[in-house]
Design a protein that fits this description.
heterodimer, A: 86 residues, mainly alpha, rod-shaped, B: two-stranded antiparallel sheet, two-stranded antiparallel ribbon, 20 helices, 4 strands
């Protein structure tokens, strides 16, 4: 019996869509917010706020994940267009 | 909820199938549409929740959001597994019915029905709150502060504190929603997606420019340490249990499932992206807010607009824009309540849990008029009564209390429903191991049960404990929710007993369902043919094991 425990793959992208642009912009923006937060925390005098540090790192992680997704989809798109394996 | 909720041939009407023909919801929600559908619903919650949570948890609001958010992530993962396994509209009550039987399915449905009616009231009140952001500039007075007392209509007693204009606006908005739903006019999928997209841009901009231009880590740290010293545990628990309302709307994931193309493939991706987006936005809003303004200045009525207004250079535009967008998107969320209640009761009536009287269709507009009117009016009644909790604060300003009261009850219904969903998730792993699960909650251990190997969901147990803890917080700290919420559920159970007895149906037992054929039908209609084959193969293997000597065992399940 085959078990369905793994993620099923989407069909390869055939065009560069609005959703792809959104994913890229959101990823870059999230990383930007995280960096701005860290910069302000460490350049301003006073104690470092633990929740703020957590949120900043969460933003960077989230942005990195979105960017990684966008990159993966782009590679699939390139591979689909050129007929190569991703 | 989107305008793609329609059936072939009859826009938006689940009752319009010709006699003898079973029409299906049209599957035209794409991967982007699925994501934005959820976002327009869940993403709006922060507009109402931020002010309530900050008022309760003060400087520890980010921790309150984080605590509720971690539980929410687990709830979201559970819904993702169940919605991709059973891609039908119906949501938590359907999953509970599959896992625990008719009675508990009804209890989950009753809890979620409470949520949908509160949803109508809460978001209509919150939407009116954002509309009134403009009243000081337009009329020279904050209309939210106009009470029966200030107009001289009532001089003393609690009635004097009722913000009559705000209440009238809220009831008017609910009336408009009822009328539009009866007429069958609903927002289009395009409108939902557009508003959701604009909202993401606005929220991202407020967060980005708030952090870049106005955010002070010191202010956040000071408020955090002050709250650690002064805030009582009860207040923090109250705040964290209220924070769960910024994440409810997860039902939309399962509501969308029946209308999503290739749901088993798309739902896990879009839901997980949605879950983490909303979680991070909620954390970010509370963090940026407390780094820009003192917690005591965060208004309950229009917190995002107040926050946006304080951003240097952009605030003059961002504040009003946030108010307009907030009022619009909250109204769409309120409409979700009207739509959701009718869809839920339709599903419950199909499963013999409530009377079919509610399925009555308007002869001209072909909409489920009775459900819309009954539950719309119930939402209006809840909004009306919630304003009775208004009081004058220590600084002399009016605190409406309506949002707080509604938030109380909202949290009760949601957490009770989620507890039952978690229990069902765990039980379904045992009683229905054959349905293909395109997504499983992570962290499972293999155990042998009844001669079979079962993936026992550790994270499901952790999630159940987490959401039970929040339900405990609600019962412990919500003075209104702990009375009104259980009273609603008990009232519904009494109705259920009366109805099932009257129909000659088992009260605590189950009406017979052929879930295997139902599952094959659902997966076939979703065009998930490989899952259909996988399911049939699993059933055939089960039949061969249980009847090893019988040639052709498994054909009963439609397998070769």
């Amino acid at each position: 019996m085959r078990t369905a425990t793994t993620r099923r793959s989407l069909p390869p992208p055939v065009k560069f869509t609005f959703a792809d642009r959104y994913r890229i912009v959101l990823g870059v923006l999230a990383i930007g917010i995280g960096i701005v937060m860290l910069y302000r925390m460490f350049t301003m005098p006073g104690p470092t706020s633990l929740p703020a540090l957590f949120v900043a790192l969460a933003f960077i992680g989230f942005g990195a994940h979105r960017s990684w997704m966008a990159r993966t989809r782009y590679r699939e798109y390139r591979a689909h267009m050129t007929g190569e394996r991703p | 909820m989107t305008g793609s909720q329609r059936q072939d041939g009859q826009e938006g009407n689940p009752h319009a199938a010709p006699a003898g023909e079973r029409l299906e919801l049209r599957r035209d929600v794409t991967i982007w549409g699925s994501y934005m559908w959820g976002y327009a619903d869940v993403g709006a919650d922060i507009y109402a929740a931020l002010g309530l949570v900050v008022a309760a948890a003060q400087g520890l609001a980010p921790a309150a959001f984080a605590l509720a958010g971690i539980v929410y992530v687990m709830i979201g993962l559970a819904y993702t597994e169940l919605a991709s396994t059973y891609p039908v509209a119906g949501g938590g009550h359907y999953f509970t019915l599959r896992g625990l039987g008719d009675f508990w399915g009804f209890v989950a449905g009753a809890a979620l029905l409470l949520d949908y009616t509160i949803d109508i009231a809460l978001f209509a009140v919150a939407s009116a709150g954002y509309i009134n952001f403009f009243s000081p500039a337009l009329f020279g007075i904050d209309l939210r502060q106009v009470t029966l007392g200030s107009l001289g209509l009532v001089t003393s007693g609690f009635l004097a504190n009722i913000p009559i204009v705000w209440e009238a606006e809220s009831l008017l908005l609910i009336g408009i929603l009822i009328y539009l739903n009866i007429r069958g006019v609903r927002e289009s999928s395009f409108l939902n997606e557009s508003l959701g997209f604009i909202d993401i841009i606005l929220e991202s901009s407020v967060i980005f420019f708030g952090f870049a231009l106005a955010w002070s880590p010191q202010m956040l740290a000071e408020q955090w340490t002050t709250a650690l010293r002064t805030l009582s545990m009860g207040n923090f628990m109250y705040g964290s249990s209220l924070a769960i309302i910024s994440f409810v709307g997860l039902e939309s994931i399962s509501q969308a499932a029946q209308e999503t193309r290739r749901p088993a493939t798309i739902i896990p991706r879009t839901s997980i992206a949605l879950i983490f987006t909303v979680f991070i936005f909620a954390l970010a809003f509370s963090t940026v807010t407390l780094g820009i303004m003192p917690w005591s200045e965060v208004g309950e009525a229009d917190p995002i607009a107040q926050l946006a207004r304080r951003i240097p250079y952009l605030g003059i535009i961002a504040g009003p824009f946030a108010a307009i967008l907030g009022s619009s998107i909250l109204l769409i969320s309120a409409n979700t309540g009207v739509m959701g209640a009718s869809r839920l009761t339709y599903s419950m009536s199909q499963l013999h849990l409530v009377t079919r009287w509610l399925e009555k269709v308007h002869p001209k507009y072909r909409t489920p008029i009775r459900t819309i009117v009954v539950f719309g009016c119930m939402g209006a009644l809840e909004a009306f009564l919630a304003f009775f909790a208004s009081r004058v604060g220590p600084d002399g300003s009016l605190q409406s209390g309506a949002l707080d009261t509604l938030g109380n009850m909202y949290a009760f219904g949601a957490t009770l429903g989620y507890v039952l969903v978690f229990i069902s998730l765990i039980r379904l792993r045992f009683v229905d191991p054959y349905s293909p699960r395109p997504y499983r909650m992570p962290i499972n251990i293999k155990i042998t049960w009844g001669g079979r190997v079962v993936d026992f969901p550790i994270l499901g147990v952790v999630g159940m404990i987490g959401v039970s803890f929040i339900l405990f917080e609600v019962i412990l700290t919500h003075a209104i929710g702990r009375i009104a919420g259980p009273a609603w559920v008990i009232g519904c159970i009494l109705y259920y007993l009366w109805y099932r007895r009257g129909q000659g149906l088992p009260i605590f037992g189950d009406v017979k369902h052929d879930w295997e054929q139902e599952q094959i039908r659902v997966l076939t209609s979703a065009e998930e043919y490989d899952l259909v084959e996988e399911y049939k193969a699993a059933l055939a293997l089960r039949d061969r094991k249980s009847n090893p000597g019988v040639k052709g065992a498994g054909k009963a399940s439609g397998t070769e």
